[in-house]
Each structure stands twice: as C-alpha cells, then as structure tokens.
Specification:
2 domains; 6 strands; 10 helices; alpha+beta; 4-stranded mixed beta sheet; Four Helix Bundle (Hemerythrin (Met), subunit A)
Length: 283
C-alpha cells in the first residue's frame, strides 16, 4: 500500500463524516457527546485543529514545532480545559456553518500537502516523528473515532424522531473496509498500550481474526496462538479506540492475555486512559 492509497481512504472517511454533520440543525451542534465536556461542534473543532496542524507539519516543520510546544506544555496541566483552550477555544466561537467550512479548508490543505509525501517520508508530530502512511492512518482513525462520538450523540438524543425518515440527516455511517487501517493500528499498538501505562509488555501471542464489513477475513498474529480475539472488525476498532467496552461487542475473546489487552487497549497517543465500562457497570 502506498501513501496515495491511505490518503484516498482518509479523504473518503472525512467526507463520510461530513455527510453526517452537514445537514444538522444549528441546535444539534451543541448536543453533548460521549467525550466529557465536548459537544458535536467541539468534536469537529478538534478535527479541524489537528487536520490543520497535520498540514503544517508536512509543509513547515519549524512552524509546527512552535505550535506543538505551546500545546505539549499544557498536556500535564491539572486544568482539563487548558489544552482545549489552545486547540478548540477560538473555534468554539464559530457558528456551525463557518466551523464546517473551516474544517473543510483544513482537510483540503492536509490532502494537498500529503499528496507530496513519499512512501518513506517521515513527518514530525506530537512525540516521535511518524512514517507518512502511519501519519495519515492516524488522521483517518481520528476522523472515524470522533465521528463515532458524533453518531452516538445523535442516536442518543434523536431530536429528529418526529421528522419523516426521508427528511432526517443520516445518523450513522455505512461501515466500510477503510476500518482495516484502524484495525491494523489497533493490533500493532498492543505493546504501546502497556508501555504507556508503565507496565511490562505481554509476550503471550494473540491471534486476531476479524470479519470485515465486506465479509472478508483479516488475520493478524500467529496461526497457532492459544489465545485469540475473533469477531467483527468494526467492534475491534470500537474497543481499541475506547468507544466501546469489549463486553458490549460481539468479539469473542479467548485467554487471559487477550482479555487483559481488550480491557486496556489504547491505540492513540497521549496519557493512558480507560475506555467506557460495560453497560450496567458502576464506575
């Protein structure tokens, strides 16, 4: 797979989310999402900011490093809103129509910049630099995961329940095989999940066998592993992006090491966090 292939899937994933939010009424942009303190507008603002800095990282590394320094210094702050103020503070003041246009503009800038990347290029980012394909995969994952928060919020509130179905905005995104990028990222970050928590990286092999939205089967890990994770690829992505607890999916998890991984999984960068508890659990 080439950088151009990942970029094409990133653009398609962003457009799929655009199709969900573009028809929303202004009041729906202020709906709370599963991310604490964040509305639907905040989710799009987050994507807007980081798509913009991703473009900057490709075309002007020095300018990106200046912007990164201001943000990284706040990541250890006791104020949970400090980083939000830097990344989405100004964007929160925009009406929805302007916010979505700003997001589209930053997406176009990222796509234009990324089109110049060679397959073996590395791009500066928050922490170690990333290979070009991994860099764009991370952006795709962000669009998909934050999009899931938006879809979940719309499903929960369902302000359009009284409108004819033909007039309602789409509140879901058809599952596509683009999630393979996220699934693969979820597999290769198993070790990161533990290192990020200051824990020893497990050595027990785990086979992952996932059913793609198209019906294809994707496999990762040794065929003869005693432990395994089997089920829908979308469910695996929901768990590793911390959008669902493994018990609220159709994944079949065999073995203690596999279970522990699914309870801790975190494929994204940043301080260690815990995903949602199983429905019905008291946390």
């Amino acid at each position: 797979m080439h950088v151009s292939d990942v970029l094409a899937d990133l653009v398609a994933e962003q457009q799929a989310l655009d199709a969900v939010v573009a028809p929303l009424a202004p009041e729906q942009w202020s709906l709370a999402t599963p991310s604490p303190r964040w509305t639907i507008a905040d989710q799009i603002a987050h994507l807007t900011y980081f798509d913009g800095t991703a473009a900057l990282a490709i075309v002007d590394e020095d300018a990106f490093n200046d912007a990164m320094g201001a943000l990284v210094g706040l990541m250890g702050s006791d104020d949970p809103d400090a980083a939000d103020e830097v990344t989405i503070g100004d964007l929160r003041n925009l009406p929805p129509a302007e916010l979505i246009e700003r997001w589209r503009s930053n997406r176009e800038a990222l796509a234009s910049a990324a089109a110049s990347l060679a397959d073996d290029a590395r791009v500066a980012w928050y922490g170690p630099s990333m290979g070009a394909k991994s860099f764009l995969t991370a952006r795709l994952m962000e669009a998909w995961a934050h999009g899931q928060d938006i879809v979940d919020a719309l499903d929960e509130h369902d302000l359009d329940a009284d409108r004819p179905a033909s007039d309602r905005p789409a509140t879901d995104r058809p599952a596509t095989d683009r999630v393979r990028h996220i699934a693969q990222l979820g597999v290769i970050t198993r070790g990161w999940t533990y290192m990020n928590r200051g824990l020893d990286v497990p050595t027990t092999p785990v086979r992952v066998e996932l059913t793609a939205p198209s019906g294809d089967t994707w496999t990762f890990g040794p065929d003869d592993a005693d432990e395994s994770i089997v089920g829908p690829a979308v469910d695996f992505c929901l768990v590793t992006t911390q959008r669902r607890h493994v018990d609220d999916t159709d994944l079949v998890v065999t073995g203690d090491a596999a279970r522990d991984w699914m309870e801790k999984a975190q494929l994204f960068a940043g301080p260690p966090t815990d995903g949602p508890g199983a429905k019905g659990d008291i946390r």
